[in-house]
Amino acid sequence: MTGTGSLRSRRTPPEVNSLFLSYVTAAGPRCEDRIRISKDTGLNNLPLHGFNQNQIWCAIVAIAVELTAWMQMLALTRHDARRWEPKRLRLRLFSIPATLVRTARQIRLHVAEQNPWAALMLTAISRLDQLAAPG
C-alpha cells in the first residue's frame, strides 16, 4: 500500500475499491440503524454477570429485534408504524391492555378498545393471522 490511510492497493484496480466503498457507505446507515434498534431493545447494558448468561441475553435481544422487524414488515403495511422505533412501538402498541380468555376450546384476545392504537393492533393481528401457516 502506498501512504498511510490509503484504500488503494497496487494489486486491485481503482474501480474495485470504489465499488467496495460505495457498497460500504450504502450499507452503513442500515447497519447503524440496526445497532441503535438493538441497543433500544436491550443490548445497551448486559444485565447478567456471566459470559454465557450474557451470550444468551444477546441471542434473546437478536430474536426480539428480528421478530419486531418481521412484524413491522408483514403486519403494519401501509402505515407509518412500519418505520416506528422500538420505544414508540412499546409506548403505543406493546402496552395496550388486553386479556386472553379461554371459552369453548378457543382462545380469544380482548383488547381495551378505548386505546387510540387498538384498531391498528387488531388490524396487525388479523393480517398476521391471515398469513399461511408453513407446512
Give the gist of this structure.
By secondary structure, the chain is mainly α.
Describe this structure in words.
A two-stranded antiparallel ribbon has the order 1-2. α1 crosses α2. The protein contains four helices and two strands; from the N terminus they run αααββα. With 135 residues, the protein is mainly alpha-helical. It is globular. The N and C termini lie far apart (54 Å). It has one domain. β1 and β2 form a beta hairpin. Helix content is 56%, strand content 9%. The model has no long low-confidence stretch (mean pLDDT 83).
Write the layout of secondary structure elements.
Layout: H1 14-43, H2 51-75, H3 86-92, E1 98-103, E2 106-111, H4 118-130
Antiparallel strand pairs: 1-2
Instruction: Tell me the strand order in the biggest sheet.
Output: 1-2
Distance between the termini: 54 Å
Order of helical and strand elements = HHHEEH
Q: Unreliable runs, pLDDT <50, ≥5 residues?
A: none
Q: Profile the largest sheet.
A: 2 strands, antiparallel
Strand content: 5-15%
> What structural class do the secondary elements suggest?
mainly alpha
Structural domain count: 1
